Amino acid sequence: MINGEFLLEVKDLSTYFFTDEGIVKAVDGVSFKLSSGESLGILGESGCGKSVTALSIMRLVQPPGKIISGEILFKGEDLLKKPEEEMRQIRGNKISMIFQDPMTSLNPVFTIGDQIIEAIILHQGLDKRSAKKKAIEMLELVRIPEAEKRINDYPHQFSGGMRQRVMIAMALSCNPSILIADEPTTALDVTIQAQILELIKLLRKEFQMSTILITHDMGIVAEYCDNVLVMYAGKVVEYADLKTIFKHSAHPYTIGLLESVPRLDVRRERLNAIEGQPPDLVALPNYCYYAERCPYRTKECLEQIPELVEIEKGHLVRCIHGEKIRR
Hints:
Elements: E1 8-18, E2 23-34, E3 39-43, H1 50-58, E4 65-74, E5 77-78, H2 84-90, E6 95-98, H3 102-105, H4 112-124, H5 128-141, H6 147-150, H7 160-172, E7 178-182, H8 190-207, E8 210-215, H9 218-224, E9 227-232, E10 235-241, H10 242-248, H11 252-259, E11 309-312, E12 315-317, H12 322-325
Parallel strand pairs: 3-8, 3-9, 6-7, 7-8
Antiparallel strand pairs: 1-2, 1-4, 4-5, 9-10, 10-12, 11-12
Helix pairs in contact: 4-5, 5-7, 7-8
């Protein structure tokens, strides 16, 4: 918190996509808070609204998508009310984002040095020589060997893991207050994944920054996050600190995710799986979105869309049976 305020407050954020098939409610009434130095994990399966939430914070949602309502307060100021020119000064400077695929984020016709230097000059106001020196320092910081030489290489000359390191160097080059990492280890092998995540963890401490880590991997959340926000079909279904989510989860979806993770201390013939499919976001039911897949479903679940309620201090759950099934 900064002077009693949270670094970032997202309040009742809704982002819809207006398609030929109908309105897709990708993010529907999402709220959360991020303190200075905190690492928040946003967890859920593909299509639940994790990435669209991140893009909404950065104000990078493209048509047919549109932010319909809500507030995104960064240091007490609503980003949704700022002119685009001011948002450009915030993006990459005060709030940075690492995207899933670095190859689509890096321009293939410019050297990685040119791209990092451009960001530093734009946001930090340094001359080209000073910006190049800082770019080399950032590449060294993210453990790229022979940084002074490799700064002149093009994206295709780097491996996937090294390209992701370049993206981290670019994201951190302006000392942001918040780093958003959207599935930063997608398509990387397990060893490289661990290296990238450990690097983000170390740099978070070094730069004293807050992080939002978007993932579908419970193991990543367990290792790198302080608090966890679980999303399903565009809505927040559970929010709590890491220990509560893993030890005392109270939403059937979170419980299902946890039970589908392999464990060395429990012998099973086969892994548990969550049956069924997420609902069609164009034709959402007028009752609990998870009801069709839920083993705890009762008649009441088919009569209403449950509210997000606090069942104990700091533990929010969107389930009418949350207190009863809490582990």
